[in-house]
Specification:
Blueprint (H helix, E strand, L loop, with lengths): L6 E3 L8 E5 L2 E6 L2 H10 L14 E3 L11 H32 L3 H27 L8 H26 L5 H22 L8 H29 L4 E7 L3 E2 L5 E12 L5 E17 L9 H7 L7 E12 L6 E3 L4 E11 L6 E12 L3 E3 L1 H4 L3 E2 L16 E10 L2 H5 L4 E9 L4 E8 L11 H15 L1 E11 H7 L1
Parallel strand pairs: 1-4
Antiparallel strand pairs: 1-2, 2-3, 5-7, 6-7, 7-11, 8-9, 8-10, 8-12, 12-18, 13-15, 14-15, 15-16, 16-17
Helix pairs in contact: 2-3, 2-5, 3-4, 3-6, 4-5
Length: 482
């Protein structure tokens, strides 16, 4: 036994862990007598070594009966620290992956990859927490856990700040609140232990963490707010009548009509809904020179006021969709549709008018489930379920889920849907549209006041704009060219 190196057991530290050295070298640590025996067996000592033998084991400042470790408390703290970091890792990965893999702009993809990278750091911090709350064999494990807690505090603060703008209940909200509270607890615990003391340059470390958080916040603001606002968004419409031709057999005049929608901006565009209408207008001539007729009505309806036309009326000749909901245009891309309007030779109209209307949405702000949106639901068919409306006239309903191109907004708000109502009557076709959290159901009546506010807010958020153009041609000029 005299040749056996003496084992020295140091006094317990603040957590109750006692370091063990042999031959002047620290060989491990132990929480309890059983842990000490296990360590000594690994070092080659006899299995039945007497812990009270002072010739073999020296107890510094505290005897063999002093083991202040509270196993349940230590294991609970370890489990809580690891659980918070793992949950934060999962949340950051869920938030970042859709943007990293499917965002339209480079800045949004960078934001997604930053969240994934932060999630990876959280995973490493969870492994480090196991060591830091244990025997601390890795010198910088506490610093790594500190970084993980700071990341959780910063990201959850961003999530909660974004949530406060709308205050809508989501599944992610309680998770964010829980992680925010956890990050405060973790930081309090780590600062109490002064884990930064092992960091070679703590001030530089703090500056680096602060700059990283500032960079992430700036990139989020740029990708979510500035870039989707600053990039030009233009959808140009064209409507033009061509040279008419007579039908050699039937008493018709064939008038070509070319309609075009072109993306002349810098960002791709979804077309939510569109329509074209062709009117025939007739008028009665008046010699009265008393000024513009019906000018008040013209101001109210944004129509024309004329001097020599005493009465005018219009009748729909042709109506329909230009392409239908759910197609898109990349910058510089256009879509052309050519129609032939058939008029009787004995037409009584004075003017022929064509209008083209389009509602477009910026693709750099949202992504629509086009398979859903392009599916038509006739309101008069009972098999359509919640789209069925017995009291409605002829109506075709389109609905598709839309997600914002910054996933932070998606997880802090209820799902949004694009809803298009295409209505027809014997006189005219018309449409209405909305982006809101309301899924159409004719058996449930929403709060219309709140719904209108939400629709206006979502149109601005997703960059929805309406475009319309009209062109007129004289029937006399058409007949003269035949």
């Amino acid at each position: 036994m005299e040749k056996t190196p003496r084992v020295i057991v140091e006094p317990p530290d603040s957590r109750g862990l006692r370091a063990v050295s042999m031959g002047g070298t620290v060989v491990g640590s132990a929480w309890s007598p059983s842990g000490l025996r296990k360590l000594l067996r690994q070092l080659g000592c006899p299995e039945g070594i007497d812990l009270e033998d002072r010739r073999v084991i020296v107890w510094r400042e505290a005897g063999s009966e002093i083991w202040p470790d509270r196993t349940w408390r230590r294991r609970t703290a370890t489990a809580l620290m690891m659980a918070g970091l793992i949950l934060s890792m999962a949340l950051l990965t869920v938030v970042g992956t859709p943007d990293a893999m499917g965002a339209l702009t480079f800045a949004q993809r960078i934001t997604g990859f930053l969240f994934i990278l932060s999630g990876a750091v959280q995973g490493l911090a969870a492994l480090a927490a196991l060591d830091h709350e244990g025997k601390r064999q890795f010198k910088y494990s506490g610093a790594l856990v500190l970084v993980g807690a700071l990341i959780a505090l910063i990201t959850e603060s961003v999530f909660l700040f974004t949530w406060l703008q709308e205050r809508e209940p989501t599944l992610y909200f309680p998770v964010s609140v829980l992680l925010f509270a956890w990050s405060l607890w973790a930081l309090w615990r780590l600062f109490h232990e002064q884990v930064w003391r092992v960091i070679p340059h703590p001030k530089r470390f703090a500056t680096g963490v602060a700059l990283s958080g500032l960079l992430a916040a700036t990139n989020f603001a740029y990708s979510a707010v500035y870039q989707p606002t600053s990039a030009p968004f233009y959808v140009t419409l064209t409507a033009k009548f061509g040279t008419p031709h007579t039908d050699p057999i039937r008493p018709f005049i064939h008038v070509p009509l070319a309609l075009q929608v072109e993306n002349t901006g810098k960002v791709p565009a979804y077309i939510l809904v569109d329509k074209y209408l062709v009117y025939g207008r007739s008028a009665e001539y008046s010699k009265d020179d008393g000024g513009l007729r019906d000018w008040k009505k013209a101001l109210e309806t944004e129509s024309d006021a004329e001097l020599h036309v005493s009465e005018s009326g219009s009748k729909t000749i042709s109506a329909g969709q230009f392409a239908g909901p759910g197609y898109w245009l990349h910058p510089g891309e256009g879509h052309i549709k050519e129609k032939v309007i058939q008029l009787p030779r004995s037409v009584e109209y004075d003017l022929l008018e064509a209008t083209l209307s389009v509602v477009a949405m910026r693709m750099d702000r949202g992504k629509i489930n086009l398979r859903q949106l392009q599916q038509a639901h006739p309101s008069w068919q009972k098999k359509e379920g919640r789209f069925y409306c017995a009291e409605c006239s002829g109506m075709i309903i389109h609905e598709g889920k839309v997600r914002h191109n910054n996933n932070i907004i998606n997880i802090t708000r209820k799902p949004r849907y694009v809803t298009v109502l295409w209505q027809g009557t014997p006189e005219e076709f018309d449409y209405s549209y909305a982006i809101s959290s309301y899924k159409i159901d004719f058996e449930k009546s929403p709060d219309l006041r709140e719904l209108r506010k939400e629709i206006a807010r979502e149109e601005d958020r997703y960059g929805v704009e309406s475009r319309s153009i009209s062109t007129r041609v004289s029937i006399a000029a058409l007949m003269a060219s035949v």
